[in-house]
Write a structure and sequence with these properties.
Helix content: 25-40%
CATH architecture: Alpha-Beta Barrel
CATH superfamily: Aldolase class I
Structural class: alpha/beta
Bound molecules: ligand PBG
Order of helices and strands: HEEEHEHEHEHEHHEHEHHEH
Largest sheet: 8 strands, parallel, barrel
Strand content: 15-25%
CATH class: Alpha Beta
Number of domains: 1
Oligomer: single chain
Length: 327
Amino acid sequence: MAGFPAVRPRRLRRTPALRRLVAETRLHPADLVLPVFVREGVREPVPVSSMPGVVQHTLDSLRAAAVEAAEAGVGGIMLFGVPEEKDARGSAGTDPDGILQQGIRAVVEEVGDATVVMSDLCLDEFTDHGHCGLLAPDGSVDNDATLEVYAEMARAQADAGVHVVGPSGMMDGQVGVVRRALDGAGHQDVAVLAYAAKYASGFYGPFREAVQSSLQGDRKTYQQDAANLTESLREVALDVAEGADMVMVKPASAFLDVLRRVADSVDVPVAAYQVSGEYSMVEAAAAHGWIDRDRVVHETLTSIRRAGAQVVLTYWASEVARDLRRA
Ligand code: PBG
C-alpha cells in the first residue's frame, strides 16, 4: 500500500501555517460595516435586551462607538435612528434635525475621514404604525406616496453629510427616486447601497426592540418571500438599472444561495447583512455554553464572504476587526 493514496488533501491542513497559506477566503476589517442605533432623548446608552452587547446610543456614546470602530479599521458604519416621537408619516425621518440626521452629523464630524458613513433610508423606525411606508386609507402600504417621502429623506441624510444611503423599504422604484432626489439636490457624489434582495424574515425579530417598532402584522406585501431566488435577481437587476452603486442581500446566513447567485450576476460590489436574529441566536447559544462563540462568529462571517459578499454588515464588526488586527 506504499504511496497510496497519491492525493492527500490533508497535507495542506496539517499546520495552522499551511491552512493560513491556502485559505481561499479572508476576513479583513475593511470589509466589515457596523450597524449602530442612535436614540433621541436618552442620557445613557440603553441596552437592547434581545441583542446582548448592543445598545441604543446617545449622541455622545455614538461618537465614542464610531471612534472605536474607526480605530479598529472597520470599513463603514450604518446608522439607524430611534426618534422620541413617531407619527403616521414618519416626520422625524425627514426633519433636518431628526435624530438620524443628528447622528450622521456627529459621526461624519468624528470619523468621516477614516471610515464610510452610511444611513438606513426607511420609514419603519419613524412611523407609529411601524411600516416602511405611508399607509393608504385601506391600510395597505402606498408605494408611490412613500417614494416621495424617501426622496425627502435622502436629501435630509445627504444634507447631514452621509456618504452612502441605504434604501431598505423595498418599495418599487425606490432606488431611482432616491438617485434623482440626490442628484437634484447637488448630491451627485452620495452613493446608494440598495437593500436589493431583502426578505420578509423572522430573523429581524430582535431589531424590532432595538428601534422600538410597534409593527403589527408583517411586511410580506413588500419584502420578498423566502421561497424565491429568481425574484432576487430581478430585484437586483432593477436596482442596478436604477442607479444602485452597491447591492445588498439580507438576511445573510439563511440566504447564502441567493448571495452567491447575486454575486455572480452583477458587476457592482455586493454586500450582505448579518441581521439581528443571526447575531442573537449565536449570542444566546454561546451564553448557554452550547457553542464556541468566537469560533462561530468567525465561521459565519467567513461563510458570508465565501458565498460572495464583498462587504458584510455585522453587529460584531468592531470586535472582529480588533481581533483580526491582533491576529
Ligand atoms: C428597515 C430595516 C430593518 C432591518 C434593517 N433595516 C427591519 C425590517 O426590514 O424589518 C433589520 C436589521 C436587523 O434585523 O438586524 N429599516
